[in-house]
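Support request, priority: normal
Reporter: lab tech (M.K.)
Component: structure prediction queue

Hi team, I submitted a job for Membrane protein from Spirilliplanes yamanashiensis yesterday, and the status page still shows it as pending. I've pasted the exact input below so you can check whether something in the sequence is tripping the parser. The sequence length should be 318 residues. Please let me know if I need to resubmit or if it's stuck on your end.
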Amino acid sequence: MIAIALVVLAGAVAFAALRWLPGADWVYRSPRLGIAAWYAAVATVILSLVSAAAEAIVPMRTGVPAICTAVLWCVQAMGGAHGAEARVMANLVTVCIGVVVLVAAARVVRGGRAMTAQRRRHRDMVTLAGRRHAGLRLTLIDHPHPAAYVLPGHASRYVVTTGAVQHLSRAELTAVLAHERAHADGRHQLLLDTLGLLSLMAPRASMLRTAHAQVMRLVEIRADEVAAARHPRIDLARALVTMATPHAGPAGVPVGLVAGDGGDTAERLGRLLHPPRRLPLALVAGLTVAIAALPVVPLVMAAACRWYPALSSCVWSI
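Reply from support: The job had stalled in the queue. We restarted it manually and it finished. Here are the results:
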């Protein structure tokens, strides 16, 4: 019964996240909470499904974690301890799980290696073709389109095109660089890469695709928020318009990297020119507690059957 409840929980959280988070006003007003909410929802779904699978394989023994009991039961069954039918079932389950894990791991490894190789090639290209701009502490590359982005790594590198230097004023360029530094300081690329790799494991999971797209939107809003706290909003807005305006040639920003003109341009402009009111502290506190508690729910539900079997039996028999 607890396994069914965990699956229902996973479905309910996924449905609620897809239904309400993209258009929630508090997410727009507090992008940091929005990013945390998406991650909490994804973690809750994954933990619920994993716990449900462990619960469904075999009943738990008091004081022994479900996954340990499941593995022990499978090993014993494969040795014939639970009869011929259980042995066949254990072998089939082991093979199926092995295939699923290998396919998922292969997708993640292949995608991770391709992403790393692409970024390494681009970093090498920037090193060879770019030139250091001592005054602004960035790397300048020749390209007509105004663009700016940060190359992730052990030492983040800020890359700006000659088109940006040509078309943006000094104040606008400084605001754009503050936006990019906010990306680096907030580890925004890592947040996006994590969801991207999870999406490779389950390419048909609409929640993971939506979470990746929404977090990509929210990290841009958050970076704008940080930059606007240090520089005039109008400078960043003007720079955004300039970078979003078509110029000669493509933008030249590597796919998957956070850039100065990323996200929803119209939404970002509206937020810069008409900033929303801050959330009340009481609401922020309540949302923070709820977001932090959400991934704990499936763990508590799974533990309830193990640590409090009488209570669990009473609850599910009602």
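The mean pLDDT is 83. Residues 124-279 form one domain. Let us know if anything else looks off. Ticket resolved.
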